[in-house]
Amino acid sequence: MSKDTGGLPVAPSMDVAMAAVDLPREEAVVGARTVRVAVFAALIGVAGGFLAQALMALIGLITNAVYYYRLDTELVSPAGANPGFLTAVAVPVTGALVIGLMARFGSSAIRGHGIPEVMDKVLHGESRIPMRLVFLKPLSAAIAIGTGGPFGAEGPIIATGGALGSTVGQLFRISTDERKTLLAAGAAAGMAATFGSPVSAVLLAVELLLFEYRARSIVPVAMAATAATAVRIALEGTEPVFAMPALSQPSGSALAAYVVLGAIMGVVAAAASRAVFAIEDAFERLPIHWMWWPALGAVVVGVVGYVDPRTLGVGYDLIEGILSGSVLGATLWAFVLLKFISWSVYLGSGTSGGTLAPLFLIGGGVGAGLGALVAGWIPSLGVVPSIAALVGMAATFAGASHALLASVVFAFETTRQPLGLLPLLGGCSAAYLVALLLSRTSIMTERLARRGTRIETAYSLDYLSRIPVRDAMSKRPVTLDAARTLESVRAWLDAGAGGATHQGFPVVSGSGALLGVVTRRDLAGSESADRPVGSVIKRPAVVIFPDSTLRDAADQMVRAQVGRLAVVERGDHRRLVGMLSRSDLIGAHARRLEHLEQE
After folding, report:
1. Per-residue pLDDT averaged across 393-407, rounded?
2. CA angle, corner 399, sides to 273 and 440, nearest 5?
3. How far is CA 421 from the centre of its chain?
4. Which domain holds residue 110?
5. For the segment 414-425, what is each residue's pLDDT rounded down to a tens digit?
6. Does 346 lie in the same domain as 269?
């Protein structure tokens, strides 16, 4: 096919420029790579399901060995052994010493409750987690919890599942984004396998790990959570993790009371988070190596465990007891206080543990206690202590983690109480609001913030992706005729005529067909003055379409390393309809700021 050059002799550089145009990349929402990643994620989900079961069995094995002196993998509470003072203190301290050695000579990444460390790898480590953590993290967590640590297994399982997903992602040639998706899939699988809560596991991944909501990431994560839950059902059955009596429909006054309770729990969550990090700061000031800190924290765990053995270990049975109303009164308040002391000190010491179960216990206990007080003082409100416990449990987690949707759905999935959804939504929303007012960071992000990483809690559609190019482009671009001599163009630029202040100009043929784009530097080069403008075109025109978004345009500028794009018709890549520059993108952001200032 012949090229339209407007009768102009085609120089070699022009021939290159006219051979093609640099078109923007327009990726499909999903494709074959998404299917491939989803298959990997489902396999990770199956493996994560078995890994979660293995970790729970290992915790049970260690607990039975050190407290009951028997070989058994059943998950039991150390409280049943009624340990004496020496056992209550010595067992946690021994476990802490082992963890300190593992952290010092194995990997310091086993310290902490897992989720912040995974978030850090997503943000700064290209979602690469060392393979050894797949083994070290669950082993250290099993030792910590099995020897009486007041943690839940879910945080370490989430971290372990994330490490598994990251490892798979490193074994195959995939992008960083796809590796992040597999990491989140592994983490979601761990949570789903622990609690049988696939939907909240996906939501937690969205709110804390993915930092996006796209089909190419949501689908694989959902596949992993589904597969992990299927493994749990096959091995454990379909019963809810936390059984509780059937709930009744709350009245309007009761619903208002649960919202107020949620707000109170937001204060409790923010205070608990600050207390944990204040304790961390205190340990940081100690004049001894950090490997010894868990042993010091374990002394507190042991002393508190001697006073109330129920504070030792996972405590899932106590969550169920609080939700069912079997733990009330002064005993409940004492337990909540002691559990908080034990958990916050041991977690602050840098041992390997989790936050979800302790927050559920503390929040559920406070909620049940306040609900019982209100029910006794103002019975006309219709507040039910078990619903208050459920709201307190979920609202504390929502306030501490800033994961609102995951908290609401988690409480529903683990209890299967649909009539609790409305109180949960109101209470968790209030807790989330109050916690955000009190602190920008959460218990998951405070440590990252201290390292200089700012975590946005809001996910919104990119403003540039909402604006089509046609609304921001210059519709009457100043063009240069390819046959025009450099001498005349240079004189025109020197005279400062209309449009001569631009930094780039589209070059067109005599019939108006786009040939390329030249810059002022190209025009002011050392080429002979009698040469035509078309001869200084050095590369194919970098173009964008009118119906593309400004985000597409910005990406195209970055890929091509240019500051301006020729806007051409989608069906005719030589038909110029406008020009788009970096200043046009900045102008679009200026309008966004104007809209914000008007609010």
Report:
1. 93
2. 70
3. 24
4. 32-236
5. 999 999 999 999
6. yes
